[in-house]
Structures are given as C-alpha cells and as structure tokens.
Amino acid sequence: MFSVTSTRKLMGRRRSVFYQDVINGLRASQKYLFSKYFYDEAGDRLFQQIMASPEYYLTRCEMDIFQHQSGDIAALFEGEPFDLVELGPGDATKSWHLLRELMRRKAPFTYYPIDISSNVIGWLEEKLPVSLPGIQLQGLNGEYLDRMEYVEHISQRRKIVLFMGANIGNMTMQQATLFCRQLHDRMRPGDLLLIGFDLKKDPRIILDAYNDKQGITRAFNLNLLTRINRELGADFDVAQFEHYPIYDPASGACKSYLISRIAQDVRMNDDEVIHFAESEPIYMEISQKYSLGETHYLARQSGFKGVREFYDSKKMFADILWERLP
Ligand SMILES: C[S@@+](CC[C@H](N)C(=O)[O-])C[C@H]1O[C@@H](n2cnc3c(N)ncnc32)[C@H](O)[C@@H]1O
Questions:
Q1: Considering the entire predicted model, what is its pTM?
Q2: Most CB contacts within 10 A, which of 111, 215, 249, 300?
Q3: How far is the CA of 90 from the centre of ligand 1 (A)?
C-alpha cells in the first residue's frame, strides 16, 4: 500500500515532461532517451571534463576560433543595439572571448544565455558579472525555442543568436533543418545566427572524441540512468549497461548507445516495468558531422544566407555566420 505522500510523489513524477519523455523513449520498440537530459549538475561537470579531455578536439578547435577571431566576429555585429542570445552556452568558456571583445568595443548589447540546465544559468549569472564587470545579462532556464520566443516578446531589438559547440550536431540533419526554420520564424530580416559545425574528417579522430580513454563520455551517458533513478524513482543497475559509440563516415552521424549487458527488468516509479533483452541498445545521442556543402544547403533550406565562415587553424571546425533572409 502507498501512503498519501508517496502516492502524491508518484503522481507528480508521472505528470512531469521528463517522466513522460523517458517512459515514451523506453517503451518504444527501439529504445531511446533524449540527450538534452544529460545536463543535471553532475552531467554539467562531466561535460566540462569531456571538453578538457585530449580526444575531444571540438572545444580546442572552437576555442582557437574565439581566442583569435573574436575581433573579426564582433566587427560584423556593429550597428544598432542588439540582444545576444546564446542557445545552450554551457559554461560559456568560448563565447566569453567574444563577450569580452564586445565589451571592449562598448557594443550596446544584452546577453541572454538560454540553457535547459538551471545549474548552468545560476553559474553564469554568478560568474560572468565578476569576470566581465558591467555586462548586461539575463539568464533564461528552459528550452531553446520556448525561451527564444520569450526574448522576442520582451525586447524588440535586433537579435544575434549564437549556437556554438556543435550543439546543432545533436539533431539529425532533418531535425536541424526544421529547427533552423523555427529559429528563422523567431528572428527578423537582417538578424544574425552564428552556428558551430563540427566538420567531417578522419573517422578515427571523430570516434575517439566520443570514446575517450579515461571513460568520461561513458560516465556522462551512464549519468542519465543515475539521474532517472534519482529523479524518477527508477532502479537501473548502471553497471549492467555499456557505452557504445559508432561513427558512419558516409552519413557523418556519430551515435552513442547504452547496451544492456544482460536480460533485465528495470522498475520505474514503483509501477512500470521496462524489460531489456540481452544486448538491447538505448539510443542516447547523435553528434552529426557536416561537410561545408551540407552547411550551405542547410542555410538555403531554412531561409538564411551565408555571411562569413571562421575556421580553426586545422580547419576541423567551422563557426558560420548566417543572415536571416526576408
Ligand atoms: C554540448 S553542451 C555545449 C555547451 C557550449 N555550447 C559549448 O560549446 O561548450 C550543450 C549545452 O546545451 C544545453 N542544452 C541541450 N539541449 C538543450 C535544449 N533543448 N534547450 C536548452 N538547452 C539545451 C545543455 O544543458 C548544455 O549546456
């Protein structure tokens, strides 16, 4: 028998979007979980460790761009006062260089970091005013498009949107096209969008980035099961799941799975039982890689035109500036 309090707790969990997303994903014939749920406090910390790992070249490449070319990027933002909206900034270590450059130039802007992790937003609101005194900043906790709509609602200024770190790679190309069209609908003609794309390259370099020797990416994936245990009352035995990344050089899709080592049942919320067959996968994340041609096609398909492309010294990564067409 459940007590009144535990029954309320169960009902509350069941109503949460997180619970519904997890249940839908685990009940599907091909099980999946949404990677946006990786980012709780432990997930944010693990992602910082991934960024510092020797295999994860993406951060070093994009850092190279922002350390050396923030002046050139900032010059393209000159003009009327603007809102600088960053989608999924994480700890903003790279965009920090651009923010500093904009402040040095006394550019009239307000910075709106939007992140699904409340931990990230709290951290940025505490740290950025210290390292960049005088910055106009309003952190927004929530989903990209929903919070973008809110910014549009509270301010009529032109928008410059940053979508860095190859976050766009966490969507299939089809999802990315739809997403960019939705961004287009929330922007006005002349507004700018800077997107970080991880470019197609030696497949071994790519696969290693998602399979680091220290096992941090493995821990990052497994942490979502721990989060589901803690927040949704599940009983995943994390040791019975194995991290398995694959890269397909033809499509450019790098996909991560958790594989059930054994046949097992996982209880959710005291009333749902999810069965796993031995070796059954849970699809966790895509990290899509792009050719330059594919980035141009994406811009055309979603109503933007290319303004300028910025590369790291090895040309492994590109931050590409697009302008929103009428
Ligand atoms: C891969 S990290 C990259 C962080 C940063 N852009 C960088 O380059 O270091 C992705 C970030 O986006 C956030 N995020 C993921 N999905 C999101 C969503 N649907 N809406 C808002 N934020 C999201 C995560 O919390 C995390 O901080």
A1: 0.94
A2: 111
A3: 6
